[in-house]
Amino acid sequence: MASVRELAKGWWAYHRALPAVDAWARSCAAERGLAVNPHPIAYLQRLVWLAENDALYGRRACPSFEPPGTPEADAKITCPCAYSAEEVAGRGVCTCALFGAAGATSADFRMAEQRHAHRYLAGPFHWSGKVLDTRGRRLDSRRRLPVPDAMHQVRSVIASRGLPLTAIVETQVQADHLCRLGKLRGFSCVYDARAEGGMFVRMGEA
């Protein structure tokens, strides 16, 4: 789970949007016969992630994946994603641990939270000297998207190490997303295509 400090910062940034996201999540769950995460802190964190993703991408993209930048693929990972019903049917809770089966237990959600934190937030990350190389991660078997993606890696490193940060990403879409994040959070961001097979993204203090 993200640190209390990061959660507090996210709450402050998006607290005006959170009641609407909360109402939407509970409505989605009710319509589908599902339950929302019963753990208040974990649930709030997912609402914050959804609120930031809405501001970042113009859609409530799944907290577990960065939209790849094509309309069809982006729509499939808009929460509740096209894969969540299958995941809930298979293991009781979706990948991001927001939604679960009506009979899912607290332990089921806790396990999903731990799995999410291990896969998407904890690393290990690949460094080339002092440069974070976000490329070459394994692909999720259903979505065929990297785990963790460039956005999750950069968010995690900023949370743990702060700025400045230089990262290599694979696509211009990923570079654009990171610079949008910079605008939202108030830090500088520039990128160029000098990395072999990717792009350098340089992020600094506001």
Overview of this protein structure:
The protein is α+β, with helices and mostly antiparallel strands and 206 residues long. The protein folds into two domains: 4-121, Ferredoxin Thioredoxin Reductase (Alpha-Beta Complex), CATH 3.90.460; 126-204, Translation Initiation Factor IF3 (2-Layer Sandwich), CATH 3.30.110. The protein has eight helices and seven strands; from the N terminus they run ααβαααβαββαβαββ. The chain has helices at residues 4-14, 18-32, 40-57, 71-76, 84-91, 106-121, 150-161, 172-185, and strands at residues 34-36, 99-101, 126-128, 131-133, 165-169, 188-192, 199-204. Helix 1 packs across helix 3 (40-57) and helix 2 (18-32) crosses helix 3. The mean pLDDT is 94.
Number of domains: 2
Radius of gyration: 17 Å
Average per-residue pLDDT, rounded, comes to 94
Instruction: Please give the order of strands in the largest beta sheet.
Output: 3-4-5-7-6
Provide the β-strand percentage band.
5-15%
The level 1 CATH classification of the largest domain is: Alpha Beta
- Tell me the span between the first and last alpha carbons: 26 Å
Residue stretches low in confidence (pLDDT < 50, at least 5 long) are none
Order of helices and strands: HHEHHHEHEEHEHEE
Q: What's the shape?
A: globular
CATH topology type of the largest domain: Ferredoxin Thioredoxin Reductase
Which structural class is indicated by helix and strand composition? alpha+beta
How many E-type strands?
7
